[in-house]
Amino acid sequence: MESILTFDSLGFTLAVKLVAVVAFFLLAPLVVGYMEHKVLGDMQSRVGPYEAGIGPVKFGVGQLVADGAKFIQKEDIIPRAADKWVFAAAPAVALVPTLLILVVVPFGPGAWAENLDVGLFFALAASGVTVIGILMAGWASANKYSLMGGLRDAAQLIAYELPLVLAGAAVALQAGSLSLVDIVQAQGSASLLGLPVWFGIPQIAGLALFFVAAMAELNRPPFDMPIADSEIIFGHMTEYTGIRYAMFMLSEYAGMVVLSALAVVLFLGGWYIVPGTTWPYEQLGPAASALLGFGVTMGKIIILAFLMVWARATLPRLREDQLQTMAWMVLIPLALAQIVVVGVLEVVA
Amino acid sequence: MTGYYSAYTTVFALAVAGVLVVAGALTVNRLVRPDRKYGGKLSTYECGIDPVGEGWSQTHIRYYLFAFLFVIFDVETLFIFPWAVVLGEAGQAQAFMLGVMLVFLFFVTLTLPYEYKKGVLRWV
User: Fold this and answer.
1) From A79, which residue of chain B is nearest by alpha-carbon distance?
2) What is the pLDDT of residues A272-300, one digit of tens each?
3) Residue A104 near residue A180, CB atoms below 8 Å
4) What is the pLDDT of residues A224-250, one digit of tens each?
């Protein structure tokens, strides 16, 4: 199947794809961020933002737009002791890989930018680059707390990366492909013991691992030790202000969207509505099915992002070595067991 | 084959577009921001008191053993991917391929209890 963003002219196709991906990259984090504001407010018995609005619509929907407008006007402070070039480049290194993952994520039938043969591999590889930006920020700030934050983030990568990749390998095994589009389509007809299910049922352990690893990758509570405010001020972001700080925040919220999207695509049936059937996409035209698929995928993404916010509101922070020990003694053996289970099911069934 | 090149052209162009988005934001920032720098503002932040010693202080990276293990395990993970993609269409060789991978995973997993016994799976 071709992407619906394909036109006769190659240059026009490329331009439309770039605009679509960049627009999604800048807008979707606003939706998730607003959801986090309101949900956290509700869980902490306060109202959250309610004054800022866009036109007549209030309820705080314009809060993040206002924040962005504020950040872009702020003075750009680079500390005297800092390693200036590395300090200035670090937010971009953290931000751009998250944007690159979006090129392979399928949101609906035809609603993707490119269907790479190695899409899953590309997404996992690109997601690992962000940590380099964080290490650069931690080191270049020339601040003890930033350095500690950067080192903790590197430790975190060592803990979550293997469960994340192994959970992805189990999905590739069941789908027989690394293309994210093929993985979603394989879930249209996947079954377990005759029952129609998405990959998230036979791979329930893989789904849990992937989700936990995603929260650790994003430094979201309960895995926010690299930016633990009561211990090391704000980790690698301690010395950042204004627009460069905003880029780190954008990469966190865009990361929530992107990793939730990957979890949806790999385990939760992507754009499909009912397990075991591709209804109602055959009855619809290409544009209508792409739009419907986009809506369904976004709905599932918001649900997963809500779970991340819920975890933030309720769970206490772990210690860095606790995450490390948990990863090596629980998550990695579990991920290997998941691969064995899927492999045996693949051969026997 | 043209599809292959055009797909990676999009990836490359998107990387360039990402850099341009960052550059654009920094340019707008440069046009509208105030610029009043002085000593205190540029000093290293340590919760308000004057910074003690250097920022690039010596640190003991206690998790270096995990880092070694991670590199080894990451390479082993890469071996699983090609196997995972072709297992479904291996036909008669399927059982054999699964058996070989089970032996491989057995030895990979065997290292974990050994490391636990050696006490390297904890840093404090």
Assistant:
1) B42
2) 998 888 888 888 888 899 999 999 999 99
3) yes
4) 888 888 888 888 988 898 899 999 999
CB contact under 8 A, B89 and A96: no
Residue from B5, B19, B20, B29 to probe the interface with A (highest A Cβ count within 10 Å): B29
**A22·B108 Cβ contact <8 A:** no
Q: How far is CA A197 from CA A191, A267, A345, in A?
A: 5, 10, 14
Number of C-beta neighbours around residue A20 at 10 A: 16
Amino acid in position A302: I
Q: Does B26 touch chain A (CB under 8 A)?
A: yes
Give the mean pLDDT of A72-81. Answer: 90
Residue A166 CA: distances (Å) to CA of A132, A342, B10, B96, B117: 21, 12, 28, 21, 24
| pLDDT greater than 80 at residue B48 | no
Phi, psi of A196 (to 5 degrees): -75, 125
Q: How confident is the model at residue B25 (pLDDT cuts 50, 70, 90)?
A: very high
A89 to chain B: which residues are within 8 Å by CB?
A: none
Give the Cβ contact number of residue B120 at 10 Å: 15
Tell me the whole-structure pTM to 2 decimals: 0.92
| Interface membership of B58 toward A (CB under 8 Å) | no
Q: How far is CA B26 from CA A92, A109, B44, in A?
A: 11, 36, 23
A169, A328, A346 ranked by CB distance to B77: nearest: A169
User: What integer pLDDT is reported at residue B1 of this predicted model?
Assistant: 43
CB contact under 8 A, B57 and A147: yes
CB contact under 8 A, B124 and A22: no
Is A79 within 8 Å of B102 when comparing Cβ atoms? no
In this predicted structure, the answer to whether residue A181 has a pLDDT above a threshold of 70 is yes
Of residues B14, B22, B43, nearest to A100 (C-beta): B14
| Residue of A237, A239, A257 lying closest to A249 (CA atoms) | A237
Residues 6 or more apart whose CB falls under 8 angstroms from that of B119 comprise none
Q: Is a pLDDT exceeding 90 seen at residue A183? A: yes
B 60-79 residues inside an 8 A Cβ radius of A: 61-63, 66-67, 69-70, 73-74, 77
Q: Which of A243-252, B3-12, B28-37, B56-65 has the lowest mean pLDDT?
A: B56-65
